[in-house]
Specification:
Arc Repressor Mutant, subunit A, 3-stranded antiparallel β-sheet, single chain, mainly alpha
């Protein structure tokens, strides 16, 4: 996974559809752990560790996690009550995506009409 592409796409998505600060903090924390684990397909981390690293209360953590799941940023497999959840980060960008619609402007520089200069100099007549 490309860290910069993932981060840029995350910010573009939340610009279009904002999410809570709790969800943002949790996503950044999960992405940081994911990167440290060399982009494993999935990873296990305790809720208490995520809460501390993201700076969230237990209630805010659960709301943020549900928001990330709902919006398709992460996938979570919950274990038994005494087991930590398994997290999978969703790749937000596409490797095949070279041009995104709406971000590229094509300008046609062909002009069929004569363009007058912006500044006209007065010519003295003799």
């Amino acid at each position: 996974m490309d860290y910069i592409k993932q981060l840029n796409e995350f910010h573009e998505r939340i610009d279009l559809e904002p999410i809570s600060i709790q969800a943002r903090s949790l996503w950044i924390t999960l992405t940081n752990i994911h990167e440290k684990l060399l982009w494993r397909e999935s990873f296990v981390v305790s809720s208490s560790k995520l809460q501390v690293k993201a700076g969230l209360s237990q209630r805010a953590f659960k709301r943020g996690r549900e928001e990330l799941i709902y919006n398709g940023f992460i996938q979570v497999t919950f274990g038994d009550s005494n087991q930590s959840a398994v997290y999978r980060m969703v790749q937000l960008y596409s490797d095949l995506q070279s041009i995104k619609l709406g971000r590229r402007v094509i300008v046609n520089h062909k002009m069929s009409h004569k363009v007058s200069p912006l500044i006209k100099h007065k010519q003295k007549l003799k």
